[in-house]
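Hi there, hope your week has been kind to you so far. No rush at all, and the record is pasted right below.
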Amino acid sequence: MFQSLVALSFIAAASAHQNLHQVWVNDVSPGYQVGLRMPPSNSPVTDVTSNDMACNVGGSTVPSGVETIAASEGDSITVGWDTSGHPGPITHFLFGPVDDAAQESGIGAGWFKIDEVDYVDGKWANEVMLANGGNHTFSLPAGLATGEYLLRSEMLALHGAQTIGGGQFYIGCAQLKITGTGSGSCGPTIAIPGAYKAEDSNIYIPNVYNGFDPTNYTAPGGPLASCGGAGTVPAVSSKAPVASASSTAAPIASVIPAGNSSEIPVPTVTLTTRPAPIPTLVVPTTLATITAPGSVIAVPSLSPSNSVNVTVSAPTPTGTGTVGTVALYGQCGGLNYSGSKQCGQGATCQKQNDYYYQCVSGQAFRRRARA
């Protein structure tokens, strides 16, 4: 399952270390490396307890002297990285809102994840970006409060993850001034450094080259955040959802402002419930119990309120016996039998089973006895 990691490791010599170089907002860029806190080299951070985990080496020095880029919640953001053959995920975090992003180091608590791509359709995030010139696009979440933020882009290379400290973090930070409608905060939040541990199962993977299943992988940093407290509350629709006829719908509660109940029409909702399935009756073709001829048994029919009486008859006797005698092949005995036991026409009453004795010809009896 991890053949792509092995294959990509051979490309590493040609395209290994990397940096974030450019940001686009709705496909418009302020320029190459504008708005970015550029590190002194393209080497990775490997110590997850280092302050460099926040915004790379030198990226937490303030004031940063970096331009802040304007954006709005919901905008499309594209990041442009050096292409790399190192397999692994890409994630994005925001820190804020703050009054002045250029004065914020980003070290510590307050980061929340807004984007993550791991292993999708047989390819790591870096492979997808490799085919796209090193670019990756995502959207700023709705519900962000207006203010300035740090945007942290992280690519984790897992080609050395078989050893503790072998995971390589490539980090780039941009400064954004976001216009939003939110009045609350986003969460959950994490601290960087602090949230990552060198022994975490998504950083240290001893079997990364032998038996590791990347389809179950999730990048560090916790789940994607949700942002609440939108500044403008959408109007409540007066149309109630219609329940589907093929499913069972839950009751719909109407929220009516106090004092205005006469002004808001309350829709009538008809819920259609799927009828209960009718069980299928399977009638066996082989009977396990031998029933004596002449008995009456009840066999259930497909109608749940009716049953059918079936009479089990003895074999039809052949010939005609005298009064008080049993004809040839007729019943002449057995448990619960109360009829005549005298066979006519020279026949002999022979036991077939405990419930059924039959009148058979003497010739047939002699042939069976010799056999």
Notes: The chain is about 5% helix and 25% strand. Residues 1-14, 231-322, 364-371 have pLDDT under 50 and may be disordered. The CA atoms of residues 243 and 271 lie 6 Å apart.
